[in-house]
Amino acid sequence: MTSGTPDRDQFDLATVSEVVAAAVPDREAIIFGDRRLTYADLAERTRRLASYLHDHGVGCHTERSELQPHESGQDHVALYLYNGNEYIEGMLGCVKARAVSFNVNYRYVAEELRYLFDNASARGVIYHSTFAPVVAELLASMTDEERDRIAVLLQVDDGSGEALLPGAVDYEEALAASDPAGPGLTPSPDDLYIVYTGGTTGMPKGVLWRSHDIFMNAMGGKEVGTWIEVGSYDEIAERARSNAGFRLMTLPPLMHGAAQWAAFMMLNAGSTLIVPQSRNMDPAEVWTLVEREGIQSVVVVGDAMARPLLEELQRGSYDTSSLFVLGNGGAAFSAALKEEFLELLPDLMINDSLGSSETGAQASTLSTKGGVSAAEFQPGPGATVVSEDLSSVLEPGHEGIGWSAQSGAVPLGYLGDAAKTAATFPTIEGVRYSVPGDRAIWRPDGVIELLGRDSQCINSGGEKIFVEEVEQAIISHPDVADVLVCGRPSERWGNEVVAVVQLAEGATADEDSLARHANGSIARYKLPKAWIVVDRVQRSPSGKADYRWAKELAASSAG
Question: pTM score > 0.90 for this model?
């Protein structure tokens, strides 16, 4: 199953990386603290990592032509890392070994990690030493067979003082001892890229992309702003050489697909990627780096990141003359906050991108001083709206509400799940589409207006939080008789989680005890920001949840 155009090359991420490095070997690729890696440095370090993985039996064992869309024939390596050069190196080292990296949400607790590692059949883990105790707990919970499957444990020293786990190897020592030439494999455009995303049940799903398709869709295969596709590796090399040295800083965690895409759009074009050192966004550090490094573009996720940046810029004194683009994706960037930014930086352009793990980059909208846009997007190639029953593609000005959809370079499916693959990637009028669940209308002026997810999903600070998962974590408390979880608007987070709880008769559990209990099975960022105790949770006669009631109650109780 391919989507390439016959008269164009089919690309793979490993070869793209090597072509760019050969074109601009001495240009800085990644700046992270006092580390300044050139493209030649990055290429050698990732080849060394690929050699290490290959020497330990991690790679490709079944070619794509022998597999179903939801199947993988490559080994999967977990990246359990904070932001840094090692994250990018992990991704590139894997593709050069014909293995596949997958993202790990570092906020997960051991129970959530266990599900993820089992679903991915992880063969290796690259992790910061801070996470060594959690990795040890995870390994201890595995059966002997599951533990034997883990062929590689690479521990990245982050100054936390955690000792190497039994069987683990220091990351830098592994690279130093490995062949700088790489394993000498021939990568394929069919080699996979995997990004895990939350599912409607709350459990993460691994989205499978062909290397060629994710490159063309979201990792630099199309020119930013024009959607013009590159046609050959020679074009990629020439584009890198002609790049004047664009410098971008991405603030979201690289464990999220949108951050990976922003990073690789830059690296695959020969630009310089700047990564802040702070593990929690430090607005002063961001603006200091903009001034010191002459950064031209900063990537954020919604108001939760943008507002603290604006407040620091208002307080401090920084030279922002190099900055001309603020990119946003993954969460809403409110019109009011955009106007405040543009009042302070009148020459700034704010670019909102529309997309998802299942569609890649779909559309964008640009805001400038005097012309602020909301959730209205100019569609890119393949972006469209399909009918509610998935039977037809709608035309601009259609009646009713449809689904946002994408054709062309779209994923193969969900790892290990044929049913969800068929449901999310239907064939309509002979064309395969990705329809991940966003409601939308296609206006007569050609603009796609995004209405939001149809399922019960809370997007808080760029994180997807599914109410069923939070409810299950709370309802297991012995003092809880019933619970509904919903979202309500938040100035900082876009939306925040609210729990409407009915306690058991005579129970006296307080918010702290409920939160501690829930935190035993879900990450802290998923915990409710507010708790509302009621005499009885309202449900329909059939027992179905009345989320409209819960949302109205949550809204009316907002302080």
Answer: no
Beta bridge mates, 409: none
With residue 261 as reference, give the H or E element that holds it. Answer: helix 257-267
Q: Which residues contact 108 (CB under 8 A, 6 or more apart)?
A: 116, 523
Q: How far is CA 65 from CA 68, 72, 210, in A?
A: 8, 11, 12
Residue 276 is given by DSSP the state -
Number of H helices, E strands in the chain: 17, 28
What secondary structure letter does DSSP report for 527?
S
Q: What is the 3-state secondary structure (H, E, C) of 159-188?
A: CCCCCCCCCCEEHHHHHHCCCCCCCCCCCC
Cα torsion 86, 90, 92, 98 to 10°: value is: 160
Q: Where are the alpha helices (DSSP H) in 389-438?
A: 418-424
* Side chain identity, residue 471: E
**CA atoms 438, 120, 99, 64: torsion sign:** negative
pLDDT 10s digits, 304-363: 788 889 989 999 999 999 999 999 987 667 777 888 899 999 999 999 888 889 999 888
